[in-house]
Amino acid sequence: SDLPASGRAPGPAVPLALAPIRSVADWRDAILAKLVYALGRDQRTASDRDWFEALALALRDRVVAHALDSDDLTRVAGHKRVYYLSLEFLVGRLLVDTLTNLDMTGLTRAALGELGADFERVRAAEPDAALGNGGLGRLAACFMESAASLAIPTCGYGIRYENGLFRQEIRNGVQVELPEDWLAAGNPWEIRRPERDCDIGFGGHVEQVGDDDGATRCVWHPAELVRAVAHDTPVIGWRARHANRLRLWSARAVAPLRLDAFNAGDYLGAVADDVRARSVSRVLYPSDTTPAGQELRLRQEYFFSAASLHDILRRHLAEGYDLSRLPDMAAIQLNDTHPAIAIAEMMRLLVDRHGTAWNEAWRITCGCFSYTNHTLLPEALETWPVALMERLLPRHMQIIYRLNADHLEAARAKGAASDSLQASLSMIDETQGRRVRMGTLAFVGSHRVNGVSALHTGLMRETVFHDLHVLHPDRITNVTNGITFRRWLFEANPRLTGLLVDVLGDAVLDDPSVLAGLRGLAGDPGLRARLIACRRANKVALSNLVGEQLGIGLDPDALFDVHVKRLHEYKRQLLNILEAVSLWQAIRARPAAGWVPRVKIFAGKAAASYAQARLIIRLINDVASVINNDPVTSDLLKVVFLPNFNVSLAEIIIPAADLSEQISTAGMEASGTGNMKFALNGALTIGTLDGANIEIRDHVGADNIFIFGLTAAEVAVRRLDGWHPECSIVASPALAGAIEAIGRGTFSPGEDTRFAPIVDELRRTDRFLVTADFDSYAEAQRRVAALWRDRDAWWRAAVLNTAGMGPFSSDRAIGEYAEKIWHVTGLER
Ligand code: CBF
User: Which of 62, 282, 338, 566 is an active site residue?
Assistant: First the structure.
């Protein structure tokens, strides 16, 4: 991309075109060549990991060729690019994604077979790239795939964490966190790009060098530099239409070894700078419970934002454009507030480094940036202490003060002059010490701000961003999230995909709206029988995994009731396990009452410092060990907690689910994307009217989803009125019985108080309205059981779920971003 913009350089972008793969033998030889010549391994002794690496390298050659070509076309066409800045990319494995999009899965199975390797084992040898926590990071990964599939020139920018999200083990019911060393054996997908490295400053002082346009031009002299080291992973789109790249930065010292210290015998001191610098890209979400942890988080955010902007401006200038044209050529999306500091950095680069006048710099900045908000939870709306910012990023703090003054002045001119309005609009929160509100900075510096579901976007306008919205009524827009069907249907559920292709034709692979054609077939007995067979096979596969990992035998004909996602109180895994306890008690009381056999499956990680969420994991595991060993109920109810939930595990669990639990306190789940993955695969949802559940209901039909509980508006009223959980508990014998059992140590023999923090929270404050929704949830679960007994009706509803999910493709979501926010189209070939 550093070639002159004036035209294509002589010759093709990929001068040494790879020999086309025409046969299994060609492909077998290409893989074998990598095994021998790139890895130096012997075919006779190669391990599954060796074969994975050889295959990935052979595939990477093909993807890189596409990426170079796509980049060249973009440059020559003078096409606008999208830059997606995200602290998280929850990629998972890339092998099957790449094979699917290149249409090489069958060929590869056969080629590996000829080489004496087993495709499934080779596939399992790839570690998950767990560079994210949950929905936000997985959304970023889906968006990268969809942008490539729609041929929208896009570069994702993030951090190459050495240790991604921790590996979870459950020991005696307790979550134990271990480092996830996904890079231990190297990463064959990535390509090191030393020519793109750059140095990022921290601390130091600011020198004033001139005055322009009322804005002081300055030189920042950082006290410390950290080198940002570039690694590219090519991302290929569906049917290999286009390839983009994900550029991840790792950190190291500019001078990694002090030889004088080393030679003096101070081996630790000699590498101390490097250790400190590397801590920036060492772990995803270092705990921010200490000041050091908070500082590290801010360092991470600035580090990757600054390196990415440096790269964006470099490319723009190298292609021969003037900086004034940046908004025509670059759309920069802030995935949540984590990269919001990029707005101040852009101003610094334009004003201090490139001499752009302040107002023009602001026009350019607002023209480029847009911001997605992913949550309204107050603890997730980042603020940084002013003192920390002044110490770590002194020039940025000056810029923020100036931007804030301009912003408050403009607000005053529009009538928002009262002290309370000015305080609420300010980028500086003065209520708990002085802190910089990153959400406000992101809002003010962006031309568009979007929420991720219709409900969430409405709540943004009404609550957290209300005053900013009044000031800029056209800025907030909605783009409901989506998921890539390539991974979450074609790859995760090949059985269902094969069936859909048989019934709807190949078009369903390219156009998600074709799924709607299933509606007319919802009552078809032939289709139903085939769907039941698919689901059963998926359930057998999951049961085998549960058997291997936990030694628990599951009945694949039982109803698989699945709750998998991050552990958070608002997601209300507690509501589910309380209902499981109460169901167990009811079965014990009347074992012959014709119960529907049910397996409750949980998985998810709790943040290491989140004590209550960790305790909920313990409760689920302790309840499981009692219930699973009860001979009275064991054929009717099982509870399973699968450790170490990640993308690959989700790909096995989701296609095996009959029921999808989406039961957050209404108003608290911005969108959810797990809800979409389950419904697409034909699971029925039990859920609150929260996030995208509402839109899912509208598309699959209210009769085909089990809605319960308070609405967001009702939750808000309860909270305003003062909320007394004791009343709900007294009114519900089932709930009271379940809480009682937990409180008296039924699931923690010899330690009655183990779950006291949970019981106390439920009885005293119940911030997430678990008790308020319990009866309604239990009643919805009875509706679930009733429908399950009516097999025809259940499978009709399942078909209608898959049929209604076309609009939840991330291709649709990316199309909306492209049109409404980025003003960019796909590249024509
Ligand atoms: O928008 C993607 C997802 O982001 C979250 O996971 C987040 O981290 N804020 C939200 O909690 C989800 O509701 C949302 O789907």
Answer: 566
pLDDT of residue 4: 47
Quick one: 397 and 519 in the same domain?
Answer: no
Residue 827 lies in a domain: no
Please indicate, yes or no, whether residues 56 and 140 belong to a single structural domain of this protein.
no
Instruction: Report the pLDDT averaged over residues 611-618.
Output: 98
Ligand 1 pocket: which residues have CB below 6 Å? Answer: 134-136, 139, 374-375, 452, 481, 669-673, 691
When divided into structural domains, the chain yields a total of 3
Q: Would strands 81-85 and 330-335 be described as parallel, antiparallel, or unpaired?
A: parallel
Residues 453 and 593 grouped into a single domain: no
Which is catalytic among the residues 673, 685, 688, 746? 673
| Distance from the alpha carbon of residue 414 to the mean position of ligand 1, in angstroms | 33
Query: Tokens 């139903």 label which residue?
Result: 528
Q: Which one of 452, 483, 676, 816 would you pick to mutate in the ligand 1 pocket, going by the greatest count of ligand atoms within 8 A of its CB?
A: 452
pLDDT at 508: 98
Number of CB atoms found within 10 A of residue 434's CB? 14
Annotate 259-297 with b (16+ C-beta within 10 A) or e (fewer): eebeeeeeeeebbebbeebbbbbbbbbbebeeeeebbbb
C-beta of residue 452 within 8 angstroms of C-beta of residue 372? yes
User: Any catalytic annotation for residue 565?
Assistant: yes
Which ligand 1 atom is nearest residue 139's CA? 2
Q: Is 677 a catalytic residue?
A: yes
Assess if residue 495 is contained within a domain. no
Q: Are 57 and 188 in contact (CB under 8 A)?
A: yes
CA-based nearest residue to 159, from 331, 62, 286, 332: 286
Tokens for 644?
């170490």
Same-domain check for residues 7 and 148: no
What pLDDT is attached to residue 218? 95
- Domain-embedded: residue 583: yes
The tens digit of pLDDT for each residue in 101-144 reads: 999 999 999 999 999 999 999 999 999 999 999 999 999 999 99
Query: Is there a single domain that holds both residue 529 and residue 555?
Result: yes
Tokens of 669: 């789940």
Instruction: Tell me: pLDDT of 213 over 80.
Output: no
* 2 confidence band (pLDDT: 50, 70, 90): very low
In this prediction, does ipTM exceed 0.90?
A: yes
252 vs 272: CA distance, rounded Å: 11
Sequence letter at residue 161: Y
Confidence of residue 1 (pLDDT cuts 50, 70, 90): very low
* Residue 565: closest CA among 541, 601, 608: 601
441 and 453: one domain? yes
CA-375 nearest atom, ligand 1 = 9
- Round to whole Å and give the CA distance between 342 and 334: 9
Calculate the CA 552 to chain-centre distance: 30
For helices 791-803 and 525-550, give the axis angle rounded to 10 degrees.
90
What is the structure's pLDDT at 289? 87
Tokens matching residue 27: 């492909």
For residue 566, the SS3 value is coil
Q: Are residues 453 and 514 in the same domain?
A: no
* The residue to which tokens 């959810």 are assigned: 672
> What per-residue confidence (pLDDT) applies to 286?
87
Helix (H, G, I), strand (E, B) or coil at 178: strand
Question: pLDDT digit string (tens) for 740-784?
Answer: 999 999 999 999 999 999 999 999 999 999 999 999 999 999 999
Which pTM was predicted?
A: 0.97
Backbone φ and ψ for 131, nearest 5 degrees, come out as -90, 40
The pLDDT value recorded for residue 10 is 60
Pair (106, 137) in one structural domain = no
* Helix, strand or coil, per DSSP, at residue 57: helix
Q: Is residue 800 part of a domain?
A: yes
Condensed to tens digits (0 to 9), the pLDDT of residues 326-362 reads: 999 999 999 999 999 999 999 999 999 999 999 999 9
User: What is the domain range of residue 43?
Assistant: 1-77+102-127
CATH number reported for the structural domain that contains residue 344 in this entry: 3.40.50.2000
Distance CA 800, CA 780 (A): 19
> Model confidence at 217, in pLDDT bands (50, 70, 90)?
confident
